[in-house]
């Protein structure tokens, strides 16, 4: 796995929670698991998506894993604080999963593949722990899908610096558009991908705050030191780009971003 480009600071944990809360209906309105189902969530991080999944399918049994001990500790705390009894949080490396073949009825992966240098190897591994007729759900963003008003060259340059930084670290910030071919290549069947666009304008001040400001712009702003140190953008231009992105959250601004949700089967 490549290093997590956004880091593990408190601010990043807060951003992940804001993101999860802002996107519940958009990403999860059609995500539910039947009673007794065994679901493996890989790359659960601090449990932002875990809480949503477990609450929406209270009779399913979730095993949520992450390769970061720090994140796993926080995930366990969040699950306990939420009073959830259908989640077991465990430390595990995706590339060395401690589970027998065909252990789970479903696999759920959200915002993980973009950070992997071996995404193509990851999907067959996940297929291996999935039972026949089981499903996999994969949700990823695509930073190249962001567009906004007022348009701004510095804002686009700041986003591009994040895309380049993630590529240098082995990840792929544009992976959302590749989900269909990746899943087909991994041998999954009945692959269905649906784009989920976030559209924010002045009539949605709450979404402008939770998504445009606190999710997307905060994400880009959080890599400032890394992209500047790597020589991917000048400090002045990056700062101007962040200012321009915040500007799009004002009453006369517009911001759009597309997530991609894929669901496939193992026959």
Please name the defining characteristics of this protein.
Rossmann fold, alpha/beta, eight-stranded mixed sheet, 267 residues
Q: What features would you describe in this structure?
A:
The protein contains ten helices and eight strands. The chain is an alpha/beta fold and 267 residues long. Strands 1, 2, 3, 4, 5, 6, 7 and 8 form an eight-stranded mixed beta sheet that branches. The longest helix is centred in the last third of the chain and has 17 residues, at 205-221.
Residue windows where pLDDT falls under 50 for at least 5 positions = none
CATH superfamily caption: Vaccinia Virus protein VP39
Number of helices: 10
- What is the radius of gyration? 18 Å
Strand/helix succession: HHEHEHEEHEEHHEHHHE
CATH C-level class: Alpha Beta
* Major sheet characteristics: 8 strands, mixed
Shape: globular
Strand content: 15-25%
| CATH fold-type name | Rossmann fold
Oligomeric composition of the shown chains = single chain
Number of strand segments: 8
Average pLDDT reading: 93
Number of domains: 1
Structural class: alpha/beta
Q: What are the SSEs and their pairings?
A:
Blueprint: H1 10-22, H2 24-28, E1 38-42, H3 48-56, E2 61-66, H4 69-81, E3 87-91, E4 104-110, H5 119-128, E5 130-141, E6 147-149, H6 153-168, H7 179-185, E7 189-200, H8 205-221, H9 224-229, H10 235-247, E8 254-266
Parallel strand pairs: 1-2, 1-4, 2-3, 4-5
Antiparallel strand pairs: 5-8, 6-8, 7-8
